[in-house]
């Protein structure tokens, strides 16, 4: 069956079985941003609901996966899976979730270092022996349960990314704009390295200029666009990001001057092809 015709698939899976799946964090995801309270809460929940009980099953939450035939892209659950990977790494588990993931954002790197230290301190506070650590590891692999939701279409994945990220640390509207534009780049002729470069540049900018960017959108760009249309609007929310999505070259949108932009894009592409042919002396 073609991927586009497949319906979303749901199943329950314990943590230990997830080692058989290779996950990938897509470009549109935010960096790893879990704070101290999230990490400690997860450790305490696993300890109280699995470790201290016999043969306990504890449902931690859901993981939403976009299966694009090449990768199992994590749509929702990245923060939790990354934290569990850190716990496994501390407990010297050889099979670590996301072990092949290359975290390039400085935000992710800093939070991984900080949270790993939190995990180490938490276990030290419990005075676990080596055998108790192994027992803890074995129990959470068997007792920690997820609901795995797999989707096969990119649009479905992006819609779920939008809706699911209203929980936890909320997305800013410009986070969704970043995700939208990176997704469009994946449809275009951009390489993986190019998309990664722009994603890192975006997050590096936010690391230094989070509040100014938020202010530019909320207090200036959004209001100017609305007032220019004689619409009364003051607060910029995630429901308004369509104002800045621009034109998708792969969908039939009805925007003012859209045909001009499409013709311009076609002219640029033709010029690039002509240049390439001239370089090979075959034009």
UniProtKB/TrEMBL annotation:
Residues 195-276 form the DUF7834 domain. Pfam families: DUF7834, GmrSD_N. It comes from Epilithonimonas bovis DSM 19482. This is Uncharacterized protein. Residues 18-181 form the GmrSD restriction endonucleases N-terminal domain. Transmembrane segments: none annotated.
């Amino acid at each position: 069956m073609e991927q586009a015709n497949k319906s979303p698939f749901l199943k329950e899976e314990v943590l230990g079985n997830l080692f058989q799946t290779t996950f990938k964090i897509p470009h549109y995801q935010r960096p790893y941003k879990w704070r101290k309270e999230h990490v400690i809460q997860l450790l305490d929940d696993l300890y109280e609901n699995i470790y201290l009980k016999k043969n306990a099953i504890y449902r931690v939450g859901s993981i939403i996966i976009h299966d694009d035939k090449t990768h199992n892209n994590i749509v929702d659950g990245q923060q939790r899976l990354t934290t569990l990977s850190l716990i496994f790494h501390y407990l010297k588990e050889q099979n670590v979730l996301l072990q092949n993931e290359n975290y390039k954002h400085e935000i992710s790197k800093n939070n991984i270092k900080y949270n790993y230290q939190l995990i180490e301190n938490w276990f030290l506070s419990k005075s676990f022996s080596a055998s108790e650590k192994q027992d803890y590891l074995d129990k959470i692999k068997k007792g920690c349960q997820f609901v795995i939701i797999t989707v096969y279409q990119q649009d479905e994945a992006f819609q779920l990314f939008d809706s699911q990220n209203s929980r936890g640390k909320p997305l800013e509207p410009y986070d969704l704009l970043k995700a939208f534009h990176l997704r469009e780049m994946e449809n275009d002729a951009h390489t993986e390295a190019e998309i990664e470069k722009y994603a890192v540049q975006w997050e590096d900018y936010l690391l230094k200029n989070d509040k100014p960017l938020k202010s530019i959108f909320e207090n200036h760009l959004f209001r100017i666009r609305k007032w220019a249309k004689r619409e009364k609007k003051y607060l910029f929310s995630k429901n308004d990001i369509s104002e800045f999505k621009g034109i998708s070259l792969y969908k039939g949108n009805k925007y003012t001057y859209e045909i001009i932009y499409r013709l311009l894009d076609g002219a640029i592409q033709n010029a690039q092809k002509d240049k390439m042919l001239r370089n090979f002396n075959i034009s």
